[in-house]
UniProtKB/TrEMBL annotation:
Name of this protein: Response regulator
InterPro entries in the record: Bact_response_regulator, CheY-like_superfamily, GAF-like_dom_sf, GGDEF_dom, Nucleotide_cyclase, Rev_trsase/Diguanyl_cyclase, Sig_transdc_resp-reg_receiver
4-aspartylphosphate PTM sites in chain numbering: 53
GO-annotated biological processes: phosphorelay signal transduction system
Organism field: Corallococcus exiguus
Keyword Phosphoprotein: yes
UniProt domain GGDEF: residue ranges: 317-451
Residue stretches making up the Response regulatory domain: 4-118
Length: 616
């Protein structure tokens, strides 16, 4: 059916004549008496043709035509006038009207002019429809290509970047973020781009709780924040939640229906791609393991590490690299045989595999050296892992069986990106330097590993007649002898300042002495500390007047004479390791102090075991 026609004329007779004539030809006609009413009608509906008188009260036909052309430059307009000079006039030509008719209008002339104008209008409609179909086809073809590419690239790291790029493109979104389900079932932030501030993006979200129903529906939903509309797009494959995308800052100011539709299609393909990528990664891991130990080979590990370095640089994250070496494995092989040497190696890998996360990777670098990569782990976390790893190895039955005949010289080192280096070789080099420091430390030279806490304290303090402590250029300095009476208090003041200066640094601090008092320099120095200190701080001794402290955890040890006779500070953090142990006498204070990380770590571990203190 032909489109509607608007007739504008202050002459009732002409309005009625035109309406009857055009209606009989099958046109739908709306007739109004002036330009104001005509503009109101045009605001409510679209007309293929406007037939208007030139001379009308108020706004004339020329002005009305100009207003109509402002709204739609292709609007068909026929002018009707009693003046024959309107035809071919400069104004009419400039306005680009379809035709000019002179009253009284012949029926045949009117119908011919209307048919021509309506034909042009229909051609424009057809052209616009074809353009829309072409655009829709191009949009669909583009969407199809993007979907096929998501299925044709199984690399999970590439997929995570590509998914948010494609979703942002098809939804005209300037900002996007993607959470992908990790091995523990949580949604972990894997990629983001655009105008987003990372500190406002949660690192992990649980797919259960409030999100559960939304995710299971597998349909995009729209939300709004103070700044922009936000479109959430679940990635669900065969009922299994694989991820969640967040899109914001649309270029059009809001998300349209076609955005939601295209996002749903793309997300379904992306979910399948992510699922396939995870399966391929699992298969790669199975096929890239050492036959004897089940650890990954070095080529896979270096490739994995390079990807982790890229992610850490791209998103400002951190990770740690650990190296472990069985220094005396050749000796084990000679004395006990090749089978026992393999048994020891397998036992160590088995022990490490029990305490690592699903995202951690173990690789065999050589017969006696192994690498571990711990994503999103800072240096303090890496040091704690080294301690746990050594303890786990000592408890492994296969290792114990070998160590009954020959103790294993297991040493570990840690480095953290970007603190210790920004490429794989730098991180490995730093790990090996720290392994060398542990090999040269007093912990190994004095064979302190098997001693209880207070026995080690007595050995380290010694007496004025004890021999000098062994030294090594590679080891951190350790000293014993007379110390200043004020050293214990001065160190507390300096440590308190450092903790307040960097409250986000993780660490462990133990301060022990005869009495736990409110006027201890550490307690006074931390009175103004923020409540969210990342370091854990403990005071050990007999209760006096310290009931509670926001930054301190008191551990009351009533009647322990060993604590009453000694004062000690044990501090291990991301940036510092230090131990001071002293015993006050009548004439002088005798003490031992060191920055040897292995000794400090060993003392803290034994102190925790001595008094059942919870490890970090």
């Amino acid at each position: 059916m032909a489109g509607p026609i608007l007739v504008v004329d202050d002459d009732l007779f002409f309005r009625q004549l035109a309406t009857d004539l055009l209606s009989r030809r099958g046109h739908r006609v709306v007739a109004v008496e002036n330009a104001t009413l005509a503009l109101a009608e045009v605001a409510r509906a679209t007309f293929d043709l406007v037939l208007t008188d030139v001379v009308m009260p108020g706004v004339d036909g020329f002005s009305l035509t100009a207003r109509l052309r402002e709204r739609d430059p292709e609007q068909e307009v026929i002018l009707v006038s009693t003046r024959d000079d309107v035809q071919g006039s400069e104004v009419a030509l400039r306005l680009g009207v379809a035709d000019c008719l002179v009253k009284p209008v012949e029926e045949s002339d009117l119908l011919l002019a209307v048919d021509r104008a309506m034909e042009r209008a229909q051609l424009r409609h057809e052209r616009a429809r074809l353009q829309d179909e072409n655009l829709e086809f191009a949009r669909f073809h583009n969407l199809q290509q993007r979907c096929l590419e998501l299925l044709s690239h199984p690399d999970l790291e590439w997929l995570q970047e590509r998914v948010i790029a494609d979703l942002g493109a098809v939804c005209d979104a300037q900002s996007a973020a993607l959470w992908v389900v990790d091995d523990r079932g949580d949604l972990a932030l894997r990629s983001y781009r655009g105008l987003l501030d990372k500190q406002f993006l949660p690192e992990k979200m649980s797919p259960e709780g409030p999100l559960s129903l939304r995710l299971r529906e597998a349909a995009p939903w729209l939300a709004r924040d103070e700044r922009s509309p936000v479109l959430y797009v679940p990635l669900v494959a065969a009922g299994e939640v694989m991820g969640l995308a967040q899109l914001s800052d649309p270029l059009t100011g809001d998300f349209r229906v076609e955005h939601t539709r295209d996002a749903k299609v793309l997300a379904d393909f992306a979910a399948v791609g992510v699922k396939n990528g995870r399966k391929l990664m699992a298969l790669q891991r199975l096929g890239l393991r050492d036959r004897d130990t089940a650890a990954y080979n070095l080529s896979y590990f270096t490739d994995y590490a390079s990807k982790e370095i890229y992610k850490a640089r791209r998103y400002g994250r951190t990770f740690s690299l650990l190296t472990f070496s069985i220094d005396n494995l050749p000796l084990v092989r000679v004395r006990l045989g090749a089978q026992d040497a393999k048994k020891a190696v397998r036992g160590i890998i088995k022990a490490l595999s029990k305490i690592i996360r699903d995202s951690d990777v173990i690789a065999k670098a050589s017969d006696q050296e192994f690498y571990l990569l711990l994503p999103e782990t800072d240096f303090f976390g890496a040091m704690m892992f080294v301690r746990r790893a050594v303890a786990a190895v000592r408890d492994e039955p296969d290792v114990q069986d070998v160590e009954q005949r020959l103790p294993l010289a297991l040493v570990g080192g840690a480095s953290t990106f970007p603190k210790d280096g920004e490429d794989f070789d730098e991180l490995v080099h730093r790990c090996r330097r720290r392994m060398d420091e542990r090999r040269a430390s007093l912990q190994r030279r004095l064979m302190l590993d098997g001693l209880p806490f207070w026995d080690e304290v007595d050995l380290l303090l010694g007496t004025p007649n004890s021999p000098r402590l062994p030294t090594d250029d590679r080891a951190e300095p350790s000293r014993r002898g007379k110390v200043a009476d004020v050293l214990f208090d001065e160190l507390q003041v300096e440590i308190a300042r450092e903790l307040v200066r960097d409250p986000g640094s993780r660490g462990l601090l133990y301060v022990g002495g005869p009495e736990i008092r409110a006027d201890l320099p550490l307690a006074v120095g931390l009175e103004q500390a923020p409540p969210d200190l990342s370091s854990r701080i403990y005071l050990l001794g007999r209760r006096v007047d310290l009931e509670s402290h926001a930054a301190l955890t008191p551990v009351f040890l009533e009647g322990d004479e060993r604590v009453a006779r000694h004062e000690f500070i044990l501090w291990l953090s991301e940036s510092a390791s230090y131990a001071l142990i002293q015993r006050r006498g009548r004439g002088a204070t005798w003490g031992f102090h060191t920055s040897d990380t292995a000794v400090v770590d060993g003392l803290i571990s034994k102190l925790q075991a001595e008094y059942d203190l919870q490890p970090y």
